[in-house]
Design goal:
The protein is of the alpha/beta class. Among the domains are: about 15-70, no CATH class; about 155-285, no CATH class. Helix content is about 40%, strand content about 10%. It is built from eight helices and eight strands, in the order ββαββαααβααβαββα. The chain has helices spanning about 45-70, 105-110, 115-140, 155-170, 185-195, 195-205, 225-230, 265-285; strands at about 20, 25-30, 75-80, 80-85, 175-180, 205-210, 235, 255-260. A hairpin with a 3-residue loop joins β3 and β4. InterPro entries: AB_hydrolase_fold, Arb2, Arb2_dom.
Length: about 300
């Protein structure tokens, strides 16, 4: 801590931070009405970062409460008691019980064939290599000294995606699954496809990526995965071009279109109207055994309609 840095003693409520959500769901300062300001104190990046994280924890709990109360979603715990919203328990889905996780004993790994252990080690090293390569894209404001808390079977975004797929999505009765994956989430989805290709293809109808940082070359996605992504995915990227304008890509995977904003953090929100249109078309196309028409400039939604 710097000599002139204030203590890292932050409030535990939104009101304590003097913030609240207005009727439009926007976070605003109670007194000034201004949006959240990251650089609350000049030249104190570490303190600002910790303040940002503390407020983020409060907002996370608030969003969980809204998802459970207003959206009737169900909160289920993953190992070590960390909650994750996974299902809408209505007539379209089955109830999912908390899975009984088998905790390998020390003898389990020794009983494995050497070839299998070697293959698992290789996969683990490759996953770590890719994760480290993209770490700088995940959160530019993250500090390196932050403590990393390992959650069993969910030690990385890639592991978490596979875990949620295996324990919740794959077990649900839903026949049409749609993904919205933002930023590093796109990389996690591609990793999920690599590990569960056949299952994903059979259950997922369409995938909307928003400013995804995936890379099919670095992640070594096979030809069949790239072909499936071209047909069933679309990436809304940060761009100053109008919403849904085609954006050139150097990667042989899904089409890229403008999200209608050059701000990375707003790409999901700005492109939601087009994403839901894309999902509707994909669902209708699946029903009629036709391929969905990807968002085109002619389908662009006017700014006044948003």
């Amino acid at each position: 801590m710097k000599k002139d840095e204030p203590p890292l003693d932050f409030p535990d409520t939104l009101e304590g931070f003097e913030y609240a959500f207005n009727e439009k769901g926007q976070l605003r300062h109670i007194k000034t009405g201004e949006p959240f300001v990251f650089n609350y104190r000049e030249d104190l990046h570490r303190w600002n970062q910790k303040r940002y994280e503390a407020l983020g924890e409060i907002i996370t709990k608030y969003v969980y409460e809204l998802l459970e109360k207003d959206c009737n979603l169900k909160k289920i715990s993953i190992p070590e008691g960390y909650g994750v919203i996974v299902l809408n328990p209505n007539e379209n889905y089955i109830e999912v019980e908390k899975p009984k996780i088998h905790v390998p004993s020390s003898s389990d790994s020794s009983d494995e064939p050497a070839e299998k252990r070697e293959r698992k080690d290789k996969v683990s090293k490759e996953t770590k290599k890719r994760r480290d390569f993209y770490e700088k894209y995940r959160n530019p404001q993250r500090e390196k000294e932050m403590m990393q808390l390992y959650i069993r079977e969910n030690g990385s975004p890639e592991e978490h995606a596979v875990y949620v797929w295996d324990h919740f999505i794959a077990q649900s009765a839903a026949e049409n699954v749609f993904f919205v994956a933002h930023s590093y989430g796109g990389l996690a989805f591609v990793e999920l496809m690599i590990q569960r290709e056949a299952d994903v293809k059979s259950k997922v109808t369409a995938v909307a990526l928003t400013d995804s940082v995936h890379n099919v070359w670095h992640q070594e996605a096979g030809k069949t995965i790239r072909e499936w992504m071209r047909e069933n995915c679309c990436n809304w990227v940060s761009s100053s071009e109008p919403l849904d304008t085609s954006v050139e890509s150097m990667l042989p995977d899904c089409p890229r279109v403008s999200a209608g904003t050059d701000r990375h953090e707003l790409t999901s929100w700005k492109s939601f109207p087009s994403i839901f249109k894309f999902f509707t078309e994909a669902s209708e196309a699946k029903t009629s055994s036709l391929k969905p028409a990807l968002t085109r400039r002619s389908h662009r939604i006017k700014h006044e309609e948003l």
